[in-house]
Every structure is written in C-alpha cells, then in structure tokens.
Amino acid sequence: MTIMYPNRRNNEVQRVQKNSETYGKSSNTYSNRGMSLEDDLNATNTYYLANNIANIHKKPTPVQIVKVDYPKRSAAVIREAYFKQPSTTDYNGIYKGKYIDFEAKETNNKTSFPLQNFHLHQIVHMENVINHGGISFVILKFSLYNEIYFMKATDILTFWKRQSDGGRKSISREECKEYGTLIKPSYPIIVPYLKCIDELFVI
C-alpha cells in the first residue's frame, strides 16, 4: 500500500519505493557515493516509514525569523534569523511501541571522535530520555573509513563523565569498536540501525 503525503513527503516516499531495488546492486553503492550521514539516515527513515517498520523523523530546528526581503513577489529571502532554543538530538520517533531518540555525528578525524561535538544540553537530554524509559543512542561515522557505529547513550554518558573528571576528551576509534556496534550498509536499507536496537535492547 502506498502511503500518501502532501507535497514533498509523498514524493520522497514514492522515490524510495520506486528506487529501492537500486540500493546495493550497482558497483558504486548508495552508501559510498559521498552522501552525508544525515542524507543516508533520512533515506533510511523514509524506507522504514514507507514499509511500515518504524516512524522516525529528523527533528525540525526551531528558528525565529526576524527579517525577510521580497525581491520578487513569488520569492522570499530570509535576511536575519536566530535559533529560538538549543536543539536536543537529531531524530526521534516510535519503533515497536517504544520511544526512540538519537543523535547522529560524523568526523574526519582518523583516530578518535571529539566529545566537543556534543553539547551539555544534548547529554542532559539523552539522560532524561533514558530515565523516562526511552531508547537513546548515538550514531557515529568516521568519514575517512566510511565506518558507522551504533553506541548506546549510556556509553556516551560514561565517556562524557570521564572527560568531566579530567580524562580523555574524545572517544577513540578503538573504543568505538569495543563499545559500539558496527553498522554495515545493506540492501535495501542504507543504515540499518534498527537491527542494533533489536540486538541491544529488550522491546
């Protein structure tokens, strides 16, 4: 059954349904075409939604528009705007009746993932999600190696505390391998992170 959405959303769902057979079949697969982690996750979530697997979306960033110019009647140009409030995490939604909330980060660093890529309010948010019974995690990508890791928020909190206690200010690539789960791109799902949830959490 095709799920109908207004405007862009419906077109995106239909595109994924129509082209799903191309994922992973060509020698230059979708996951290594230079797409960003966000692009890959958005396409993955669209596939999950179109196939009634999960309902997970990227959170909109609340922005207050201050000044807009209208050079043409049919066009508007935003000249000044600011964030209403700090963003929390990138994605949230529902999977098998459970609240899902996660952050996606990528780095060009060869050996580690800098914790400065996280903000304190994001750490607090992930802790709150856990305390209220939700599933919180982070998807980390080492872009130079095209490696994507799934890491529980509880482990991120541990590394954050280590930093706060005067320890290392990053998560080494070896620690990502030890504490995280490598996500292997697959067909037709580009970043099949729900498999990690099934393996690591009781739902």
Features:
203 residues, alpha+beta, six-stranded mixed β-sheet, two-stranded antiparallel sheet, Trna Endonuclease, Chain: A, domain 1, 32% helix
Explain what the structure shows:
The chain is an alpha+beta fold. It has a single domain (8-59, 86-200), classed as Trna Endonuclease, Chain: A, domain 1, CATH 3.40.1350.10. Helices cover 32% and strands 30% of the residues. The protein contains six helices and ten strands. The strands form three sheets. The protein has a six-stranded mixed β-sheet, sandwiched between helices. Strands 2-3 form a two-stranded antiparallel ribbon. Strand 7 and strand 8 form a beta hairpin. Helix 3 packs across helix 4 (153-164). The longest helix has 14 residues, at 37-50. The radius of gyration is 19 Å and the shape is globular. The two termini are 26 Å apart.
Brief write-up:
The protein is α+β, with helices and mostly antiparallel strands and 203 residues long.
Task: Describe the protein's topology.
Layout: H1 8-19, H2 37-50, E1 55-58, E2 63-72, E3 75-83, E4 91-95, E5 98-107, E6 112-114, H3 120-131, E7 135-142, E8 147-152, H4 153-164, E9 170-172, H5 173-179, E10 181-182, H6 194-200
Parallel strand pairs: 5-7
Antiparallel strand pairs: 1-4, 2-3, 4-5, 6-9, 7-8, 8-10
Helix pairs in contact: 1-2, 3-4
